[in-house]
Amino acid sequence: MSNINFVPDDYVQSNESRRANLMCLVLFCVVMAGLAGSFVTIKIRQRACRAQELLVNAKMTKVEESIKKFEDLQIRRQAMTRTALTTADLLEPVPRSVLLASLTNNLPPGTSLVRLDMVQKDMSKATGDRAKSKYEAAQSKGGADAEAKLSGEKALETRMDIEGIAPSDLQVASYIEHLSRSILLDNVALVESKEKKVDNAMFRQFKLTAVLRKEVHLTKDDVDTIRSKAEQSIYQF
């Protein structure tokens, strides 16, 4: 027995069209919901990334401030170091009273001091001002860094001009020998020795040069010993 369909074809096509439209609408809603969810998710992630970026920027700012403070501290430390070196240069490594007492203690019998001059010279400038040969000029670049490392205390040199009178050249030679053995002096040399008449008596007027030793460290016992010997001599300091 054959089946007979009494539903019109137009009605059937209309139902199928409505179903297709409904299916498309549902799919459209699903797609739009997915897009909306993705948009919201992206916005949330963007806000999170923005907050993290602000946090990183804040940390970077703090790090930059810390670096700047560290650089300022380094500059201050260098300035303080230069000030300390300058102060150390200005301070006398050996008190002049102790140095004068040492010069007096080494005087032979009958010998006396007439004049003492002390001058500090910057040997680094003196070396830089003198004329340089071609070889020295070629080597100057390599030596510049080494010279820069020298402290001001090592560059300064204290030179002394000593004048006095003695009965004879024998006492002058003895005085030079005593000063050469001193722990305070170096490069003791005779500049001049000539006759001079004092109160109808002939004496030898001498001139010496000497250099104060660098990095001299006297203990309290050394200072007390030098001063006690000076107090026992005919000159009081």
Produce a short descriptive summary.
The protein has 237 residues and is of the alpha+beta class. 60% of the residues lie in helices and 20% in strands.
Description:
- The protein is an alpha+beta fold and 237 residues long.
- The chain has 2 domains: 7-91; 96-232, Alpha-Beta Plaits (2-Layer Sandwich), CATH 3.30.70.
- The chain has helices spanning 9-90, 96-105, 123-129, 134-148, 152-155, 169-180, 220-232, and strands spanning 112-122, 156-166, 185-198, 201-212.
- A 4-stranded antiparallel β-sheet has the order 1-2-4-3.
- β3 (185-198) and β4 (201-212) form a beta hairpin.
- α2 crosses α7.
- The longest helix is centred in the first third of the chain and has 82 residues, at 9-90.
- 8% of the residues are buried.
Index terms:
237 residues, alpha+beta, Alpha-Beta Plaits, 20% strand, rod-shaped
Q: Count the E strands.
A: 4
Structural class: alpha+beta
Uncertain runs with pLDDT below 50, 5 residues or more? 144-153
Number of helices: 7
Element string (H = helix, E = strand): HHEHHHEHEEH
User: What is the count of structural domains?
Assistant: 2
Which percent bin holds the helix content? 55-70%
Q: Order the strands across the largest sheet as they lie in space.
A: 1-2-4-3
Assembly category = single chain
Report how far apart the termini are: 153 Å
Largest sheet: 4 strands, antiparallel
CATH architecture of the largest domain: 2-Layer Sandwich
CATH topology of the largest domain: Alpha-Beta Plaits
Strand content: 15-25%
Q: In CATH's first tier, which class of the largest domain applies?
A: Alpha Beta
Average pLDDT figure: 76
Computed over alpha carbons, the radius of gyration is 48 Å
Shape: rod-shaped
